Amino acid sequence: MKISKQIQKLKNLNVKAENCLSREEAKKIINKATKAQSKIKL
Question: Dmax over Cα atoms in the chain, in whole Å?
Fold first, then answer.
């Protein structure tokens, strides 16, 4: 995937993280963000 798409995904995950209320949902968001960040670094 393109870097720009991964950056957009991180922005969307950031918005979701600000609005999430449960711990489980937060864990999922953190895992997705970590995966997106690792793709940017490659």
Answer: 32
Q: What is the CA radius of gyration of the chain?
A: 11
Answer yes or no: pTM beyond 0.90.
no
Extract the tokens encoding 23: 């711990």
Q: Which residue has the tokens 């720009």?
A: 4
Judge residue 13's burial from the number of C-beta atoms within 10 Å of its C-beta, 0-12 exposed, 13-18 middle, 19 or more buried.
buried
- Tens of pLDDT, residue by residue over 1-42, are 688 999 999 999 999 999 999 999 999 999 999 999 998 887
CA 28 to CA 13: how far, in whole Å? 10
